[in-house]
Amino acid sequence: MIDMDTRLRAARGIAKTETAAAQDAYYNLIRPHKALRLEVNDASRRWQQRTPAMAAGLTDHIWTVKELFLKIPAPLVNNT
User: Fold this and answer.
1) Residue 52 domain-assigned?
2) How far apart are the C-alpha atoms of 25 and 65, rounded to whole Å?
3) What is the pTM for the complete model shown?
4) Contact in structure between 36 and 54 (CB atoms under 8 Å)
5) Is 67 a member of any domain?
6) Is residue 21 assigned to a domain?
7) Is 49 left (phi over 0), alpha (psi -120 to 50) or beta?
């Protein structure tokens, strides 16, 4: 039996790998993780939020969804 999520993706023409890539990008570039935050010596705030990409040194800021979709190229569609 095919689940609803699989049928919806098939109807929209979205492959599982494309969905997984978008989820990975969100997880690594946009979503700050509490375990990765750094303590700062600032009166206005105590912690600097960080994403996994920031912790790895791949970027210097938390990305927005708009920034992600403007900078990451869309996957090529293979119609074979």
Assistant:
1) yes
2) 10
3) 0.66
4) yes
5) no
6) yes
7) beta
Domain that holds residue 55: 10-59
For 42-78, the pLDDT digits (tens) are: 888 899 999 999 999 999 999 999 998 888 766 666 6
Q: What are the residue ranges of helices labelled H in the chain?
A: 4-12, 16-25, 52-55, 65-71
Q: What is the pLDDT of residue 41?
A: 85
Who's near 39: CB < 8 A, 6+ residues apart? Answer: 46, 47, 48
Flag whether 3 is in a domain: no
Residue 49, CA distances (Å) to 33, 35, 54 in order: 7, 9, 9
Helices (H), 36-80: 52-55, 65-71
How many domains is the chain built from?
1
**Nearest Cα to 36, choosing from 54, 62, 63?**
54
Mean pLDDT of the chain: 82
